[in-house]
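Project outcomes to date are best conveyed with an example. Our students and postdoctoral researchers have been running inverse folding experiments weekly, and each run begins with a structure described purely in tokens. The record below, which covers 168 residues, was selected by the lab manager from last quarter's runs and is presented without edits.
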């Protein structure tokens, strides 16, 4: 039997995907939180309509809203989604995961194949045009030459760059 995932003592397993009313009920007014983050085991943009609806609610409460994403939302929805984030998402953090398409393919095994890496970079670049802050992030275990490549990609598209610690 598979263990239920946990983080900081919180059980992260859901019995079902929540609907808008259930999310809002759990959030309440998000009192005590300055920022709310869309993040998860899967890709948050897979439920884009719900994400946008909840983000709109959070903005009505004057909350900062961040999206942590693998950057493949455009591919999931077969359309550019960055314009839809405008005014609702304050920060988009894209996990770049690699400095080139070959390493990305090896590490991520994306359903979108060879073109996934370019899709991630393109999405991040589009977000720069529609969202106040965009960050490309990578884990600290990448080789130094690859970290430099990733930082250069961020610079070229106008995004911030962050090296994060590998958790687990």
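After processing, the design step wrote out the following sequence:
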């Amino acid at each position: 039997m598979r263990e239920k995932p946990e983080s900081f003592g919180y059980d992260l397993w859901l019995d079902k995907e929540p609907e808008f009313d259930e999310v809002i009920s759990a959030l309440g007014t998000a009192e005590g939180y300055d920022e709310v983050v869309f993040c998860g085991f899967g890709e948050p943009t897979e439920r884009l309509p719900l994400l946008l609806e909840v983000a709109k609610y959070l903005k009505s409460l004057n909350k900062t809203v961040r999206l942590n994403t693998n950057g493949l939302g455009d591919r999931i929805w077969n359309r550019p989604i960055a314009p839809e984030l405008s005014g609702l998402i304050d920060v988009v953090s894209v996990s770049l995961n690699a400095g080139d398409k070959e390493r990305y393919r090896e590490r991520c095994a994306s359903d979108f194949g060879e073109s996934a890496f370019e899709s991630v970079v393109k999405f991040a670049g589009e977000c720069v045009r529609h969202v106040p802050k965009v960050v490309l992030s990578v884990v600290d275990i990448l080789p130094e030459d690859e970290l430099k490549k990733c930082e250069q990609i961020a610079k070229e598209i106008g995004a911030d760059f962050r090296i994060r610690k590998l958790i687990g």
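The mean pLDDT is 93. The CA atoms of residues 3 and 136 lie 31 Å apart. The training component of this project remains on track.
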